[in-house]
Amino acid sequence: MNRTAQEKLDDLRDETLALGQKLIDSIPRSTKVLLEQDMEGAEYQINSDDEYDARTISLEEASISLMALHAPVASELRHAVVVMKMSGELERSADLVTNLCKVARRINGHPLDARLARLISGMSDQAHLLMKQVLKAYAEKDSALAASVSEMDVHLDTLHKQFIQSIFEAHTDGTIDLAVAIEMAKTARFYERVGDHAVNIARLVQFMVTGTLPPAGDHHRDGRGDLTPIGDERPRATP
Amino acid sequence: MVMDEARKSFHKDLAEVRQELVRISASIVESIPRGTHVLIEQDLGEAERMIFADDDIDARTVDIESRCIQILALQAPVAGELRQVVSALKICGELERSADLVVNICKAARRIYGHEFDPRLRGLIVKMSDQARQLFSEATGAYSSGDASRAAAIDDMDSFLDDLQRQFIQSIFESHAAGRIDLQVAIQLAVVARFYERIGDHAVNIGEKVRYEVSGWLPEHSGAERFRSRQVAPASEGGAS
């Protein structure tokens, strides 16, 4: 690849990192919106997601055009492919974070009890940490750090399960109604899926650095897409 | 002559990638009603078989991804052929996630085992399932035949699935209020509704990739469009379109 192409690839990396940083920052900010029911903050995040979408699409187009115009090979080709795929992961992650702010709007006026709020903070911290680590792994081309992100995600899945349990308890105690309970169950999945996207990015980083694609999928760990437990996994009689 | 041979094998590679993706996609189409059957009939044996079978789809999509990257590296395709490889790379991810969502329906079935839910909820689940299946079948057909207009129609069909999902959530509230289902089942079913909805979203995404591949059309996500309409269009790297 010539010098121009290398410069273009550097630009793509910079934009990927800039979008990554914006995403990282938006996680705790949106959690605060949710917990404090900050309607102005919600509007800000929801509006800024449009710009984010536009930038991820431009990034994707730029990575494809780099491949078309410069036909990179080896590690540079891998980097271009990774940027192309990462743009989608970032875009969907930002959508999920934005969904948190939409939940804040829908549950506005229904305060959450302290236990739920604490668990939401815990999931948010963990999702934030996963994204931070994986973007660091990308910036530093560190495949070992990327590999550790999958392990860290297990913790987020555990928090998710505790949270679902707490929703049932809160409902039993009468502190939240079904509509809020469903919003909370969705909220937990949003954090969990941000974690899943971090794991997907980790896989891309490993590929970029090593040239080998680690397996996709999730059955080596219990979690992604899961909503266990519902308190009692044993078959029960119909109420 | 050597060049001709290389081109021939390149076209063969592209065709094989498409065939394999179509096969995977068709198996997902077929798995949607099976997953629904597992949920409605509480068939735990079938749930387990389907959860195991997903590993195979994961492995196959990784093979295709690797193969696409190899094609990029060895052939450096441009224009329409580059778009074919890019689409295939992206469709891999859509298929992998869609298969996971069907598995999630089976996992939900395990969790609500032993709990009955009323005929109205069952009826709506079957409708959502039929609609998701139809969307996915259209996406598979559009990709298989490279039919951009068929792909464009998928988006309209998806709004019907979104409507069904809203009706279903409403029915969950009514059933819960009437004491016919408990909270745990209500929440599981609400999440199941989202699984069908998201299978529909993935079908729409596959349709978008088909349109991109055929015509270079890029999905301007509605948000990106809104943003651009408010701004002077940012300078983008042209070339691929």
Could you give the topology of this structure?
The complex is a heterodimer of chains A (239) and B (241).
Chain A: H1 3-36, H2 39-70, H3 74-106, H4 114-139, H5 143-172, H6 178-210
Chain B: H1 2-41, H2 44-75, H3 79-111, H4 119-145, H5 148-177, H6 183-215, H7 222-230
Helix pairs in contact in B: 1-2, 1-3, 1-4, 2-3, 3-6, 4-5, 4-6, 5-6
Task: Give a written overview of the molecule.
- The complex is a heterodimer of chains A (239) and B (241).
- Chain A has 239 residues and is mainly alpha-helical.
- Chain A contains six helices and no strands.
- Chain A has helices at 3-36, 39-70, 74-106, 114-139, 143-172, 178-210.
- With 241 residues, chain B is mostly helical.
- Chain B has a single domain (2-230), classed as Phosphate transport system protein phou homolog 2, domain 2 (Methane Monooxygenase Hydroxylase, Chain G, domain 1, Up-down Bundle), CATH 1.20.58.220.
- Helices cover 85% and strands 0% of the residues of chain B.
- Chain B contains seven helices and no strands.
- Chains A and B meet through α2, α3, α5 and α6 of A and α2, α3, α5, α6 and α7 of B.
Distance between the termini of chain A: 68 Å
Helix count from the secondary structure assignment of chain B: 7
CATH secondary-structure class of chain B: Mainly Alpha
**CATH architecture classification of chain A:** Up-down Bundle
Task: Kindly report the average pLDDT value of chain B.
Answer: 88
Radius of gyration of chain A: 20 Å
Which residues of chain B form runs of ≥5 with pLDDT under 50?
Answer: 233-241
Oligomer: heterodimer
The biggest sheet of chain B amounts to: none
List descriptors.
heterodimer, A: 239 residues, mainly alpha, Methane Monooxygenase Hydroxylase, Chain G, domain 1, disordered C terminus, B: 241 residues, 7 helices, globular
